[in-house]
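Quick start: what a row looks like.
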Amino acid sequence: MGGVKTSGEPLSGIKAVAPRKARMKNFVCTHCANKVYFENTKCMACGAALGFDTGALRVVSIDPDEGAPGLYRRFGGRQNERVRYCGNAVYGVCNWLTDEGDPNTLCRACDLNRTIPNLAEAGGLEAWRDLERAKKRLIYSLMRFGLPFDASASAKGPLTFDFLRDALTGHIDGVVTIDIMEADAVERERQRQQFQEPYRSLLGHLRHESGHFYWMVLVEAAGKLDEYRALFGDERADYNAALARHHRSGPPADWQERHVSAYASCHPWEDWAETWAHYLHMVDAIDTAEAEGMEPRAAGFTFGSFWPFKSYDVYRRNSFQSLIGRWVPLTIALNSLSRSMGHNDFYPFVIAAPVYDKLAFVHALIRGYKPGRTLRR
């Protein structure tokens, strides 16, 4: 299969797929139809309270129930259905809703936390807010894909988050640990330069570490190890030795010919996690670009500057080839815009032929997963 390089020309010959109404990252107040955003708790136009409805996967307006403090009714919803904000809303870190009858006061995303930052420490609350903002976007994407939050099939624990100070960011048996210093923009930039990374973000860390969890679910437990090893290599290679070698000697000179990032070259597990994170970057960015009406014209089309197809759910429908066909011209446009503002490339990556195949493998596993397992603990 031929490689795709974002520094080259956009793809041509892209085929449309059957349209389907999509639930995008753009939301509107269900009370006044004003545009609102994923993290909003109040509509700036009509003043209505807002919350994220995990059942509908959208932001909705809610009205206080006068007879029951702390409870709300969805605007235009059934009168006998009441909701409340997640218990963490009092800290200003969550705008997600839970049903009145749910015995758990935490929303689906916050319920995955095992450890949060020490709020008595300076900067603890601010770090938690940044961490939750990024984590909510990850969980939103996982729900859009219909992926489970448990790994019971592989005898591992559920997807769990520890946000700790002076900890080693990583994953083990379902537990994702993030050093809260990653929420500090100055420290994150220092580490980006120290490790000579072209890109480093809090959301990127969360997507990467979630990839280790979904390796257990979609590869190991699903019996896909042979296909995985054919693309990524044998994960049974000594991980600690591989990591030490990478930090000592750096990546091989030709790493860009086989991997999406330098770090991906150190071990097959990291190659998978980096590829997984990259795939989530792609889908989320395309989803947002379509919602904002800013996808550039692909080569061969003369319909103007916007994507000429009707909206459809990029999380559910799309061949991988058509996904890449949309991604390449978008990244070229974004890089050009970034350079026009005097910044480095927005998308400093190259998708070579082996990387294309790895991303296609991730795509196939996600789209091939059969929903039905519980999304709750």
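That is the whole record. The helical segments are 124-145, 185-194, 202-220, 225-232, 239-249, 268-292, 320-340, 353-368. The mean pLDDT is 85.
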